[in-house]
Amino acid sequence: MTATDARTLPIGAAFDRMPFSRRHVLIALALFIAFVIESWEQLALVYVSGDLGPAFGIDEAGVGIVLSAVAFGMIPGVLVWGPLADRIGRKPTAFWSLLAYGVIALASAFAPNLATLVALRVASGLALAGVYTITFPFFLELLPTRHRGRAAVYLSIGWPIGMLAAIAASVTLGDLGWHVVVIASAAAGLWAFAIRAWVPESPYWLAARGRQDEARAVLRELGSPDAEATFTVASASARAGNPMDLLRGRLARITVLMLALNFVFNWGYWGLQTWLPTLLQAKGLSLSASLGFAALSALMMIPGYVSASLLTGRFGRKKVFLFYVVAAVLGGLWFATASSLTGLYLGNFVLSFFSLGAWGVWNTWNGEFYPTALRGTGYSWATASQLVATTVAPSAVGALLAHATGFTATMLVINAFMVATALLAMPLPETEGRELE
Q: pTM score, two decimals?
């Protein structure tokens, strides 16, 4: 080893001159499909939920319980898996979580009664929470610094792809019953083996655990010209995965803002998506037309992500996020007050384009606030806050509709949560171009 090779560097510096290589493309594919699966699982049964009522003799309230069960299980699940990922590593967390999800999902397809189905759906949520929590932090810790924002936003496109897959399943498999859709979900759990084969452990995590040789080996695989250095990690002495450390020192303010923002942002998004077919039918669209509308909305999300990806490297996370959220609010107002079918489509397309572009930036930005020893834990708290909103929002919007609040008033309430999102983002620090700690 030469004197130059013997340098001591912060681990983040090893990513500054790293090129974006073919290995990164393979990693991106593996984690992209994982995110598609996560989206699919949360939405697949929504579009075939009409089959659940006759199958189990339950009303809409019972169907709602089945649909919410996965999210309910994921709330405690993410709070367990996030700290675990900081302690045992990103890779084993993603692998065992996704594999366990597949096994439990398969069992739920053969549930003999409602109680068993709900219990198994909760358990599958507990399992899926691991890969759901760690996908973005894991990806961020493998990317070159200058490509981190753009590539991670592209990963977010997995959400509308999963949504489109769920809609397609409802059209092609729906007549065969909800069981078939769930079995397809279970088969997706086999993707865990692709993650194990294609995605290396995070060099940040390895260096923080003192596993320098393994960190160097991964960095060589990723093409870092600084792979032979000795690496230091700012948070190496911190207690890995300790949730209370999120509320200490400079992290406390970030944590409070982050939790509030995740709740209101997801409330606004999920409150709309869950009830979009119902809201559209209230405006005179048939069920099939409503599904087509939702599919077109999902397609509009993709250019929203792409545009946000192109802009975040140039203007930074914060400016792009704020602009997209404000534009989504304006799209929401257009959608809420539309007096024609054309206005309804255009307003929702603007809303979908900008709100999901903002989500792409947020998924990246949200994973960059914390040091390595707490990144999984911090992201798990963020995810838990989102999931609480995912659980609460459908019931809250349903209550608004049940009390005859009406389409426009309901949409304006949903839109108010987007306004709160922008306000909460303003004090957060910019992270574009900064090395991860």
A: 0.82
